[in-house]
Amino acid sequence: MNIWPLKGMAKHVAITRYPGETETTPGVTPGRPTSAAPDDHGLCPTHALRPDGGDVDLSRCIHCFRCVREPDALARWENDYEWGRFLPGRGALPRAFRRSIHVRVVDSGDCGACLAELLQLECPEYSLHRLGIYVTPSPRDADVLLVVGPVTNAMRGPLEAAYAAMPEPKRVVAAGTCAASGGLFGPTFECNNGVAGAIPVDLVVPGCPPPPLAMLQALLAVMGRGQSPGEEVR
Length: 234
Ligand code: SF4
Ligand code: SF4
What we know:
By secondary structure, the protein is of the alpha/beta class. The chain has helices spanning 4-11, 113-119, 153-165, 177-181, 212-222, and strands at 32-36, 54-55, 75-78, 85-86, 101-107, 133-135, 144-148, 171-175, 203-205. The chain has a domain at 85-222: 3-Layer(aba) Sandwich (Rossmann fold).
């Protein structure tokens, strides 16, 4: 039995208030490091922290929390979830797609966690369909290709084929640290260095894994409903 509707009724919150309002329910985001002191002792295992400090390279951060643990706390941590950003020169779909899109999801070799977070969007708590976002099994029907995982050699061909089969206009979302940069898995003899090494990427959502609301914000951004820098999510 699906207990989500009952939980929602008991809490008087059947569905997230996002994007109409900021979601403040505890646990909706693990947060992320946004700036840090110089990492001169090599604390960060993925070199997301820079030796000279400043902004964190979120495309490499794996959320190991080392940089916020005492006594080694180096980073400022923010509990936000609007993490998706367009790459330079990239943007949303044309205005006709503001109300509805179809999304083809490709698992290019993820560890399972990114996909598990993404699946949460189908639950009543997030209810993807209320926003006009539908998952399709066919790339020929898809406006957006959402890719998780670092792109293993075995998945590179299928990923390129899915991209080639999509009609124009189309957009690609790379979700998760692995998709953004290869993460812990790539580049290696068996793995690519993320989605951009195989097909053109429009928007990257960092996180290991990104929480469901971060993925939702990315899809809304691709629809032109926010958020590129300076825009608000509506
Ligand atoms: S959370 Fe871990 S991977 Fe991310 S910046 Fe901090 S130390 Fe590096
Ligand atoms: S980004 Fe993290 S959670 Fe997602 S596939 Fe890679 S290791 Fe797994």
